[in-house]
Automatic annotation (TrEMBL):
Annotated signal sequence range: 1-19
Highest classification ranks of the organism: Bacteria, Pseudomonadati, Pseudomonadota, Gammaproteobacteria, Cellvibrionales
Record bears the keyword Signal: yes
Keywords: Signal
Organism expressing this protein natively: Microbulbifer bruguierae
InterPro entries: OMP_w_GlyGly (IPR026387)
Protein name: TIGR04219 family outer membrane beta-barrel protein
NCBIfam families in the record: OMP_w_GlyGly
Amino acid sequence: MKKLTLAICTALASTAASADTILGLDATAGMWKPAYSGLVGAANVDADDFGFAEDNATFLQVALEHPIPLIPNIMVAHSKIETNGVANLSQNVEFGGETFIANQDISANLTLTHTDATLYYEILDNWVNLDLGLTARQYDGYFEAANDYSSPDVVGAIPATSETLELSGVLPMVYGMVRFDLPFTGWSIIAQGNGTSYNGDSHTDVTAKIRWDFVPALDFAVEAGYRAMTLDVQELDVLESDLDIKGPYLGLSLHL
């Protein structure tokens, strides 16, 4: 009876290990608190003038890995980034086809929401992990400026003015991830990011973080670090910008 019980336990353990080897699913959800600096719009208005709010941005990433050598692994990620602010500009500014008169409060909404589809290979997979691949990043964003009243400081009535500059399109990017596991501690150091310079546009998005597997039996971990984006787009769509978006990052990760 003991031998039978041992055989069953061994078979179950072997099956679980085999399933994990055949197919693995990693899911990470997190929040990012970015600050904004640089230039926005073709008018090259300083983002600091709008005082964009440092609201929390949400982040979700799911990766599916398998042991077939020639077929890449798949990862999908989505970041929802939205903020708003108000500026009182010292000179007339044109966004798109609309002119905004100086000394009026201009409200602005900025959305840089995007979705990534990544194909990558595991180059190293031990205490040092290295992944390399390619990403297609689909932006679904915009910059909206509006002046919805007549300024009492300007002679004559000034009509309400608004303009929306779209940021919609796909950027091809190089993907990389390096992870150092500290043996017998449950701690890891990770750097992960994308970058591109394409058709006059350049874009980087890098996260450096520390990971702690605090429930090793369930492969459940917490991550903390810093995420930094640079977005210099002139050709992708109507919205032209040269922005830096940086801030602390916190996430939870689960491996199945």
